[in-house]
Specification:
The structure is a homodimer of 344-residue chains. Chain A is of the alpha/beta class and 344 residues long. Helices cover 29% and strands 25% of the residues of chain A. The first copy, chain A, folds into two domains: 202 residues, Quinone Oxidoreductase, Chain A, domain 1, CATH 3.90.180; 134 residues, NAD(P)-binding Rossmann-like Domain (Rossmann fold, 3-Layer(aba) Sandwich), CATH 3.40.50.720. The first copy, chain A, is built from twelve helices and 18 strands. In chain A, strands 3, 5, 6, 9, 10, 17 and 18 form a seven-stranded mixed sheet that branches. At the A-B interface, strand 15, helix 10 and strand 16 of A face strand 15, helix 10 and strand 16 of B.
Chain lengths: 344, 344
């Protein structure tokens, strides 16, 4: 089979790799029909985070079950399924508490230990705890592309909003106009936020933020952005979603929160050097968030997408074939593509 | 009048200072009958935090109103009153939200701009928003000493517990066996915690922690303490109260929380160099807390003290006269006194 392999910064290749196979009784193999490139794939691609050369990459995919191990009970060959970006058992204490991202039997797709999502097929460990069955009639339906962001960015934006304590009528700032930030806008609007201020630097993405429910946009950076937010909100927002993960975005997020406010951060903090603990101590700002427990959020978000009240599809602004994955990476790194969908 | 003045590390003196006087219409002057030395007073005393020589020190006091400005309506001359360690107006947006520690008209006693609490009298700005009237019959009653910790350490321990999300039946770790940590144990027990594990290094204080509701004590440090907590709790506590404020205590607190748990920190982070954001991101640990909004918590805690269901009095293990304040500092710095009460 063919899949995307990471060879080094600016060097991903679609290559022949060993076929995905059931290795344990709890595995399933999913034949991928749709995948995505994630902003976090760009960290190693850009050289900002180390990743071993020769390992698989990509963690957002959906498709059809091709094989299952003998212990798998919740999905069967032929089922249309969606996977979150981590696998999880569904039965350990963390999973039962709604934190599958900390599953004791869990792991990351596209990491050193697992298959990557940007390929023809993926071995899915802990299939019963991981995979979500989709209605069969979704195959071939355009709505399937609306469901695809549930693999990562939509639950991650939702996690930022939940972690930031977004409440009906509250004021919300979203730092970052990437796919996660835009999903954060959707999530905040879905939770009933009264005002949603989107911070970013790309006109087209901020236009999308407005479509998704942003009431205001701020395009300046750093201290200037904080000053505008504090002016717009009369002293800072109740909830701030940090959806980037570098030092400037974190500082902007903390500065944008009102005293006693909450910052929900979901951007991999790869670019963060330090946190001014004294400042957030003085202002009683809560810092919450982390890796999104996507599997726990998917059912409620899926229900809304199927009902037509939620649609993150527009974040997938360009489709590529499998052979074009290297181009997709280059386009996303160059910001000409917001988020690449891979259609197999 | 006489009051305590900070002259430098290991050098506080009780000296003649100008009489406390009403300076604005909203001021009151309180004749101090009881004061305390706070663990945070020991930061400048020990040289760990800068403080200008010649400034007043101390921020925990109660007493009798001696004078009021013409705009003060809620207290009158002769009233027995308690003050939290900060003053606040009671009417700005932060105060109305229950965050008087961020009051736009607020300030700190014992700071560069205000009187200190360890003296014969204190000018209290924003008297209506700041002072809490106590029942007159409390004067001369031993119960008044149980109320004294409401000036700071009891609401601060409570803030740690609230920030750490202590819930009925939950598992709780309290890092630190100083007065705030011990009040944190009291607060966690009051909120119904199912298990309270106190971490500290002083046998007598940990004995008090047990009296206050700790079910377990851990006396080792650092990674060893974390290992014991994780063993006792089966993977970490739901809620961790960080009541010290140095790097080791913060690291211990974060390590003691379960994935998805909450750390409430109230120790002035004077000794904290850095925070491992990547680790708490991976584990979805929430960091909350800061300067306690004491004024907002005092009414409910006072009600319980007056009802006899809460008693932080034992943290005040030794009484001194005003002239003995320098000895009180030395004793607390040397750990022979847990918390000094000054009786005038």
């Amino acid at each position: 089979m063919r899949a995307t392999v990471f060879h080094g910064p600016q060097d991903v290749r679609v290559e022949e790799v060993p076929d995905a196979q059931v290795q344990t009784g709890r595995d399933a193999v999913v034949r991928v029909t749709h995948a995505c490139v994630c902003g976090s794939d760009l960290w190693p691609y850009g050289g900002g985070l180390p990743k071993e050369a020769g390992t698989r990459i990509g963690h957002e995919f959906l498709g059809v079950v091709d094989a299952v191990g003998p212990d798998v009970t919740s999905v069967a060959v032929g089922d249309l399924v969606l996977s979150p970006f981590t696998w999880s058992c569904g039965s350990c204490e963390h999973c039962r508490r709604g934190l599958p991202s900390s599953c004791v039997r869990g792991g990351f797709f596209g990491g050193p230990a697992g298959d990557g999502g940007q390929g023809e097929a993926v071995r899915v460990p802990q299939a019963d705890g991981t995979l979500v069955r989709l209605p069969a009639e979704l195959a071939g339906d355009p709505l399937l592309q609306s469901v695809l962001p549930l693999t990562d960015v939509m639950p991650t934006g939702h996690h930022a909003a939940v972690s930031a304590g977004v409440e009906a009528g509250g004021t919300v700032v979203v730092v970052g106009d990437g796919a996660v930030g835009l999903c954060g806008v959707l999530a905040a609007a879905r939770l009933g936020a009264g005002r949603v201020i989107a911070l970013g630097h790309h006109e087209d993405r901020l236009a999308l933020a407005r479509r998704f429910g942003a009431t205001d946009v701020v395009t300046v950076r750093g201290a200037e952005a904080v000053a505008q937010v504090r002016e717009l909100t009369g002293g800072g927002a109740d909830s701030v979603l940090e959806c980037v993960g570098n030092q400037e975005s974190l500082d902007t997020a903390l500065g944008s929160a009102r005293d006693g406010g909450k910052v929900g951060y979901v951007g991999v903090p790869a670019g963060v050097k330090g946190l001014q603990l004294g400042t957030i101590f003085r202002r009683n700002i809560t810092l919450a968030g982390g890796i999104a427990p996507a599997r726990a959020y998917i059912p409620e978000l899926l229900a809304d997408i199927l009902a037509g009240t939620l649609d993150p599809r527009p974040v997938l602004d360009r489709a590529y074939g499998l052979d074009d994955v290297p181009t997709a990476y280059a386009d996303m790194a160059g910001r000409s593509t917001l988020k690449a969908m891979i259609v197999l």
